[in-house]
Amino acid sequence: MSPDSLFIFCAALFGLAIGSFLNVVIHRLPKMMEAEWRAQCADLEGRTVDEKGVYNLWAPRSHCPSCSAPLRITDNIPVISYLFLRGKCAHCGAVISARYPIVEALTAFLSGIIAWRFGWGVPGVLGLVFTWMLIALTFIDADTTLLPDSITLPLLWLGLLANTWSLFVALPDAVLGAAAGYLILWSIYWLFKLTTGKEGMGYGDFKLLGALGAWMGWKMLLPIILISSIVGAVVGIALIVLAKRGREIPIPFGPYLAAAGLIAFVQGDALARFLPF
Length: 277
Prior knowledge:
Shape: globular
Number of strands: 0
Order of helices and strands: HHHHHHHHH
């Protein structure tokens, strides 16, 4: 096996384990944010909030949401445990969401793609981190319509730091990309709000596009916006027509931005051929 093939295999295998951790992040981080907001509100009102034990990304141990039985090591093997248990809890038989192995398999697949695209080295390792953060943001936004600052802001700063050494684009392009990415959606937000009196998107979307601009530069912003808007419009119409989803129910834009950003990250050279600049 060549070094590049070995790196792709190891990245995909490690991606399974990372996917298992991302499931924890996706489930727990919004709850941690909600608890923090409650604590801040209580502090402003001069109240105290009763803490119900430690709750973070590391504690308590993973457990069944139905019977609260702690998961054994053999119950936590990515994808394999789900298939072996036939999608049910080993203790109470409750159905386990298929989303867990899907996130694990998706993380492994995309990790392999990134390893193939960038190869072994600093760009490849940073590309893996970039991808894992986008996966977490995608599913958190899909569940809660939230894009946590604790992920979007580090993603932005990591992109700028990486391009300090021009790993993906030149630093001036990265800085312009971060600023323009934020300001483009910020301007659209205010134009829509002043015109309709409604909010069309959240501030997390501004930060996410700014982060994508920090990684790929200002030239990739147009393809990212076009791809995400087209896919978002198609999915939104399908949900309204086929799934009878109400027009008043918000559709998170973060997953489409993340998907378009990942496409641009992997196929940026091919997309650049169609750009007029």
